[in-house]
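pls design
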């Protein structure tokens, strides 16, 4: 009996020593002893300038702020080009999740790729930080492990159209890039125009990364609509603006819901002057944005777009949440992301809402006249700040199944 009790006591003592050596934090801790972040975006196509390697640089800047570690574990960064093809993006995400131990994938820059990876990540309990436009990411397609940063088709499509219809621009023609991104913008513009008692006179869709917009623009011109809306971005948007100028579309107002500073830089102020749009970030807004953007410029020789600044913000906030949750387990991290305020150069007092939408102020800007610009990249005049509760739909409007009604 004595030997049995002694053995049992020794075993329990040994177990106590083992338990005392375990990490102090609760939960599963850091998987594979490393936090691995993937940047998946367009690195060779029409969205390469607005996201691409610039987003990789921005993510690395966020990692560097943490000293390259979180909870004493190394942070690794991977990147890949999805070539704007959902199957390629999905295959890369599956490889990253299943073989490379990736914990979170950020950016996407393409809504079709984003939806494919968001669904896979939900099944794998992995986090996605989406910098693509469709409002459905945080509405009917929302996920407990995903968040949407930067902008949506609602903030930049519905919001812009609503303001213009209210100012008397009642008739519209849509020139839409033919995939989820453009279709989402077209739907939100149509909604705003209809609610404002305006009219959409027609719509034509074009393939991604087209070099010739002439037939589409001629249809828009012949419609006599007061507004021609280019529901596209990147190279497609720039092509549309350049060719619209060549066709002399002067009696119609040209609107591009999504414009990036790299687009204006490429177009030049002579072509882009007077263009009004909504943006989530401008490098020259205040001292903090200027200081961070100059560090980014030193690495990329270009000022950051709103997507690149948003990727920095999203990755930084993710790492803060890992630190707070004491784990990289997907749902636990997302819970902390929703609890913590987003305070950085991208957003002050931002909040990741129950449906995954990151609420932050937006800015109505106008491209300067060439005579107003004092230096390269000095391109915008901020006309107004749009508060977060006006820039994005209310939680009551969300179709997200996660939202408690």
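designed seq:
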């Amino acid at each position: 009996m004595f030997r049995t009790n002694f053995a049992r006591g020794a075993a329990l003592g040994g177990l106590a020593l083992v338990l005392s050596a375990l990490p102090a934090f609760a939960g599963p801790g850091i998987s594979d002893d490393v936090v691995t972040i993937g940047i998946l975006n367009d690195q060779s196509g029409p969205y390469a300038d607005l996201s691409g390697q610039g987003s990789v640089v921005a993510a690395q800047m966020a990692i560097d702020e943490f000293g390259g570690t979180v909870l004493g574990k190394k942070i690794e960064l991977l990147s890949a080009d999805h070539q704007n093809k959902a199957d390629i993006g999905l295959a890369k995400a599956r490889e990253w999740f299943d073989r490379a131990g990736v914990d979170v994938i950020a950016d996407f820059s393409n809504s079709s790729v984003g939806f494919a990876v968001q669904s896979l990540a939900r099944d794998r309990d992995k986090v996605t930080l989406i910098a693509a436009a469709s409002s459905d990411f945080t509405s009917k397609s929302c996920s407990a492990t995903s968040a949407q940063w930067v902008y949506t088709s609602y903030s930049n499509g519905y919001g812009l159209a609503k303001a213009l219809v209210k100012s008397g621009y009642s008739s519209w023609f849509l020139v839409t890039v033919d995939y989820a991104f453009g279709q989402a913008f077209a739907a939100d513009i149509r909604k705003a125009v209809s609610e404002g008692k305006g009219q959409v006179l027609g719509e034509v869709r074009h393939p991604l990364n087209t070099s010739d917009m002439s037939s589409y623009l001629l249809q828009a011109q012949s419609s006599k609509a007061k507004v021609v809306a280019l529901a596209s971005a990147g190279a497609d948007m720039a092509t549309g603006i350049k060719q619209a100028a060549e066709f002399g579309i002067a009696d119609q107002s040209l609107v591009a819901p999504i414009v990036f500073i790299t687009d204006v830089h490429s177009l030049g102020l002579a072509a882009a002057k007077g263009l009004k749009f909504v943006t989530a970030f401008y490098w020259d807004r205040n001292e903090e944005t200027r200081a961070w953007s100059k560090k980014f410029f030193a690495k990329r020789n270009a000022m950051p777009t709103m997507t690149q600044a948003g990727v920095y913000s999203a990755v930084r906030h993710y790492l803060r949440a890992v630190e707070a949750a004491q784990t990289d387990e997907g749902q636990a991290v997302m819970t902390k992301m929703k609890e913590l305020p987003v305070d950085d150069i991208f957003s002050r007092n931002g909040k990741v809402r129950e449906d995954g939408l990151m609420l932050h102020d937006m800015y109505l800007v106008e491209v300067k006249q060439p005579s107003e610009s004092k230096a390269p990249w000095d391109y915008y005049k901020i006309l107004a700040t749009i508060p977060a509760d006006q820039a994005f739909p209310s939680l009551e409007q969300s179709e997200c199944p996660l939202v408690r009604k």
